[in-house]
Amino acid sequence: MSHGGGHHGQSSSSGGSSSGRGGRGGSQGRRGDNLSQQMGRMNIYSQHPPARSTVPRVGQPGDLVGSAQHPNAPFPKASLAHHQQEFAKRPKGSVYERPAVGTKTELLTNHVLVHLPQQTLKLYCYHIAVFQNNKELTKREEAGPIFYNLVSRFRREFPDSSTFIFNDVNMLWTMVQLPKAEGEVRFKNHRIVYKYTSRVDFGQTIREDQDRQLLATLVDAIATHRVRNPACSKYTVYKQCIFMLQTVPENPDEVCNAPLTVPLGHGLDARIGISIAVRLNLRAGITACFDTTHKLFTRTGYPLIRLLCELINGDTITDGEFENFWDERLRQAVVTEENRKQLDEILSKMRLRYSRDIAIQIDENGRETVPSLMVCRERGKLFKYYRLTPGSAANTYFPDHEGREWTVAEWFLRCCNIRLRYPNLPCFERKPSRQRPSFCAWPMEFVTYIPESKRFDGLPPTVTRNELIEHTTIKTAPQGRALFEKIIGQNQIADCPPVIDNNDPMMQRYGLTFEKEMINVKATVLPAATVEYGGGYKFQDKNHEGEWEAVTHDPCLAVLDGSIYVRNKDKDNDAPKITKRLLGSILNVCSPLNRRNEFHYDPAGYHHLMKAIERTGQPVAWENKEAGQAAIHGVLNFSQNRDDPKKIIEFLEKLKENANAEENNKKYKKSDEEVLIPLVWIVFEVRCSTFAGGRDGFANEYNFIKYLGDSALGVYTQGILSKNLSIVQENPITCKLTRLIVEKVLGKVGTTHRKLEREGDHKSWTKLTDPKSPTLVLGVDVSHPSPRDRELGGVRSLSVASVVGNIDFDCTEFRSSCRIQDAGAEMIVRFQDEIAARLYDFQRNTGVLPAHIVMYRDGLGETDFQRILWEERRSIDQCCKNISVKYDPTITYIVVTKRHHTKFFLKNHEEGHEKHGHNILPGTLVEEKVTTNTFYDFFLATQIGQTGIARPTHYYVLHDTWEPYVAFWPTVTHALTYLFCRTTSVVSLPSPVLYAHLAAKRAKEHIDGAENYARIHKIKLSFENVHDVEKLTKAINVNSGLDGMTFV
Fold first, then answer.
1. What DSSP string runs through 160-213?
2. Structural domains of the chain, with CATH
3. pTM of the predicted model, to two decimals?
């Protein structure tokens, strides 16, 4: 609806507005190895690297053709050698076949067998490009409907379309050739461009040269064709999932009360989506893996004035409350800037509908017809959200074609005989265009969500995100099993037909069938390692519960003997043992939104935490130990509204400088063989991420302080919210929060709380931690920015690679090094230097070089294996040769991933623990059927939790020159999940991998902090400048004065 006919009208508001290598490494024990000298020559973090050459370079191994860095670099043939390498072979036999290892069981999995047609079909494959307004569509939900519409209109170009199989994006398969090999059809602003590509064989015989990924896509497309077709109104497509659009409630007993469609606030519904992943290289044969997820969809016809009411209320409201109570309240409501911001975030890029069905009409006699707000709006005009008008409908003016000024409310009254219910609310403004430049706005009361349920692409409020997690999580494994059995059994759910149906004419035409039963697999529950604490205390998880008590144990379990001493890196046996004593300080950080620049909390929590730390055996400084008063070396209250950030820098510098001053030594030390270690507790009034890392104009104090403490100055810090500090209880046995904080602090300061028993029954762990043949265990990860962070640019748009490695024989203490690189790059820049740093740290702390190097690599897909393995393994080989030509350790390369859809369920749920939702037990190993023919891989579940379905981790042993016995890698990997220092439970990934995650995350925070530091000192950093990049690389690595896992 246009208000006025002026083509240049503008609105205004009166109210403002390898091949493997064997050997053990014969020189690993020599002091004369040249690693130290090599590290010195490398000068990894040099701030003055050679200037970048402007001469075009030849591509190097690992460079990609057409990469952003070298778009014209030729691709040397030598770098194609990675295609010739062989992966590690699967050992003969299996762990399941060894009765002495673990407990044997059988499970069900969410895979089913798929049978291709016995008689091979010859199909024709075409590439399809779908355009709208000359823009190629790449989203399934957009391209699919347009394709089917045009095919139905152009039957001459697309005869016999009933046999067409379209993947909703860019591939079409037909049984009969199209009349033309290539062509184009167009209708209005839509068009299709098609081109013949190849002939495809579809049958049980799969040729070696056949594209398996394409074949998997074809199977998926045939199986889901019926529900993806726009003619099916009970499903909608979004990305890789097919979402149910049920209109009647499901029978809870059918799916064991599993959530399907869940109404949430703000006019949004959580709908269940089903995905199918077809795998052709599994040991069981061709399988389809079913999985489910929930996404937010708009509720049909939801009025936006109700959305505003819920935003004002801070919670959902009922139909009665909306029509009776909120109708009157809205008449006096004033839309705040916060309300506007929330509406803008929610509605961004959404299509909405304008309808006058609830308008108050005035007849010629002045009588009003007032319909209910709950009237179903059947008519309307669709438009895309642009923005809200600065003022309300009563004070937003626009000129008509005669130049006369109108308000929106006045125009409706005079020209349409409609009195607005809520003239005090803003309107939705249409985005002006060259064709339609005139001002146009629709009152909020006439605008709703569109009448079809569509995927919600906006930013939902925090409360809605929390509701989504809370109400859509499948609570127990039996719930999940019941749901999968319903889907896999090809049964109707509520009023939605089965997603896959063997009776579907298209399935029958192509000879494709899916079995209706979940695949049965054999599994082994591996024995748990024995956890060892100080004082000789040992714990073994015999019941496979996956958790135990330490800080909350009565009595508290002590740290390991000798771990409270400063680490003797020179391995001088005659050197005195210096005890670390923690000297606490407090830095209070006020919320930027707090204009009072102060906040209050119960300080007793600080003293309770320091007392709990000492109970573990780590000494702390006391003001009055009998009274439970820990020493407070310094206190600083900071608010960025009032204070210069340099105050924090000066505070931390002073703490570090004066920690071991004579006055403090006399007051707090118990002997001369002690050193006071500053520990700063950062008490935040609010979480810094609340302000989205500077998107609201606020600096992220957490990142800034962490950069200062961990990197620039070298001071241990621990953050905590004031509300959490206030609830810390005096008795740590009854306070879970105390356990979490204390374990983190011990890890940060390098005081080892626990290890795994070396000389016990766990033979694999004994072999891994043998000091005579030591092992360096590496965790490697690359952290990439989110799509939203890429849009912001700057620091947040970079990727960070992290490498962590142990510095002790027992694999308990890890150190890290990180490096920044281009966004999305999985290949690690100068990986050889990072390996050298880890070898250097290991040798410095143990006195020997490792005989074995084991690397757990996260973040890779199967398509990356060849290239990344080749480059990273060569980097390790070259690094070892640089140390000594005689140094030849074994190398094992294991990829770790949770990016898969495979899940396992107990056949008898009574075998599981009720408190863990009757999930499979921690330590459950699966080696058969759903593992691959191509790689040596296995699934291992170590995760515990009270809700949800446990997702196992998938491990690929890609390279292994150690070649131990068949049970070695699964049992060692399981043992490593007991050593994550932040928790007293097994974790879903080996601890080195989790440490690599944390190190990369902390490195990103350091970059942000370093940028803030540079801004304070009026230094401008550019990510295009190689010198600045080197400075930032140095900034994200830990200060050499800190000896602990600061990233935890």
1. TGGG-EE-SSSEEEESS--SSSEEEEEETTEEEEEEEEEEEEESS---TTS-HH
2. 115-299+466-514 (no CATH), 304-451 (2.170.260.10), 579-749 (3.40.50.2300), 754-1036 (3.30.420.10)
3. 0.88
